[in-house]
Amino acid sequence: MLRGGEVGLRARHDDDIPILRTELYDDAVTHSRSQSGPWRPITPGSKDSPLTVDDTDQSNVPFSVVELDGGTLVGAAVLWGIDSHNRSAHIGLGLRPCARGRGYGTDVVAVLCHYGFVVRGLQRLQIETLSDNAAMLRSAERNGFVREGVLRSSAWVLGGFMDEVVLGLLARDWNPDSPR
Length: 180
Hints:
The protein has helices spanning 17-25, 28-34, 104-119, 134-142; strands at residues 2-3, 7-10, 61-67, 73-83, 88-95, 124-130, 146-157, 160-170.
């Protein structure tokens, strides 16, 4: 397990999937705001679930997020789009409703930075988020990410287009000891 101040990132367990599915995936609004593709219902127990881990896929590393104090599952995180040649990847995360507003997002981003820069030896991490996602923007910026641009009307979300903000962090600019 990778440890932050409040949360840890560990491998996804089979018993995590029903919880994450119910609280993150099956919430069509939350899913539509966090994914680039449209929401669609998935049959319980389906092997086609996006929450099921494919250990052969080297371009995505999914984690379950747990509280260090007690081990309660609080969300999911991923380093995705890993490009070994250019040494870059993207960060994504989703917190269960009961875990939002507690600073866990900032801690998750910090742990993903540690994983990306220290464990994987990456040079660049990137986050794309909707322009009104204040929590993710705050979590990214507290970890040193810099706003690099806005993709105007690039995300189709529940019947309308929204802007996306692109944030980046280079290994040389990352400060693992920065106050969060």
